[in-house]
Amino acid sequence: MFQATADAKRHDWLALTGGAIGIGLPLAIGAAVARPDDKVIALRGDGAAMYTVQALWTMARVQFDVTVVVFANHSYLILNIEMNRTGAGRAGPKATQLLDLGHPKIDWVSLAEAQGIDAVRCETAEAFDVAMERSMSRQGPMLIEAAI
What we know:
By secondary structure, the protein is an alpha/beta fold. Helix content is 40%, strand content 16%.
C-alpha cells in the first residue's frame, strides 16, 4: 500500500474551504512553482477539475512535478448539494441534466494524454496504490483518474 514519505516535520498544505470551485489545479501549479524540489499532489473532483482543465497543459509544458488525482463520479456533486440547500425542492430534469458530467462521460486519461500528461484510470484500490507508487517514484506530471 502507498505510504507518504514526506518529511514528517514539515507540512505545507494549500487548502480551500470556501465556495470557489476549480481553483485546485492552478493552486497545484502555484505550489510547484513555490516548491520546485517537492512533489505536489492535487486531489480534485471531476466537476471542479473541469473548471480549469487547461492547467494540465501548463503542468505538461513546464514539466511540473504534480500528481493530479481526479475522483470521477461524473457529476458536479457540490453544485447538486448547493441546489438542494436552496430549499427550492427537488431539481427538475433540466437542472439535473446541467449538473451531470456523464453525457458524454469525460475520459480523463485521454484528456490528460492529449495535453501531454501521463495518465492512468484506476477502478480498484489496488490499482490506485500501484498508480500512486509509480507517480511517487518518478518526476513530472501524472494524472490518476480514480473511478468512483
